[in-house]
Design goal:
By secondary structure, the chain is α+β, with helices and mostly antiparallel strands. The chain has a domain of 38 residues. The chain is built from 1 helix and 2 strands. The protein has a two-stranded antiparallel sheet. The longest helix has 10 residues. The termini are far apart. Bound molecules: zinc ion. Zinc ion binds next to loops.
């Protein structure tokens, strides 16, 4: 068998990127709603984001 593959990069199905929530510290998975701004997402939910803003308010 001489099958040449252009790339050895294989995507595992079901393996989503994860991040750690900056507020609750829990890991959370990529979600469809974040597909446009995943790079900016820092919190697992709107609630965490709100809490973070509240606790860091001066
Ligand atoms: Zn969180």
């Amino acid at each position: 068998m001489h099958k040449k593959k252009a790339t050895s990069f294989s995507k595992k199905k079901g393996q989503l990127p994860t991040k750690i929530c900056a507020q609750c510290g829990l890991p959370f998975e990529w979600r469809k709603r974040w597909e446009r701004n995943w790079a900016e997402v820092r919190y697992c939910s709107d609630r965490c984001r709100r809490i973070h803003h509240l606790t860091h308010k001066r």
